[in-house]
Amino acid sequence: MGNSGSVVFQVELDGVLYYQSATLTGSDNAESVSVDIPVDATTITLKRMMPEMAMVMTTRAGGCETIAKLA
């Protein structure tokens, strides 16, 4: 990403947004994220969103799936 790109991170549990970062650039410090996961949650979705690509990793009980969508 360097200093010229930007990214937003999201955490979803069962399709509900639980966390969204501010827009970060390569010059920003790393951030720690802590999300309380309900015991009945079945799907965790981690998203990294950039202007040119959205990368989605969905983790389920049986494994994980990565989907890349080009704009």
Question: How would you describe the overall organization of this protein?
Answer:
The protein is mainly β and 71 residues long. It is 0% helix and 54% strand. Strands 1, 2, 3, 4, 5 and 6 form a six-stranded antiparallel beta sheet that branches.
Summary tags:
elongated; Beta-galactosidase; beta-galactosidase activity; mainly beta; six-stranded antiparallel beta sheet; 71 residues; NPCBM_sf; 6 strands
Q: Tell me the major beta sheet.
A: 6 strands, antiparallel
Poorly predicted parts: none
Domain unit count = 1
Structural class: mainly beta
Radius of gyration, CA atoms, in whole angstroms:
13 Å
Give the distance, in angstroms, between the N- and C-terminal Cα atoms.
Answer: 17 Å
* pLDDT averaged residue by residue: 75
Q: Helix share of residues?
A: under 10%
Number of helices: 0
List the secondary-structure elements in sequence, H or E. EEEEEE
Strand content: over 45%
Number of strands: 6
CA-based shape: elongated
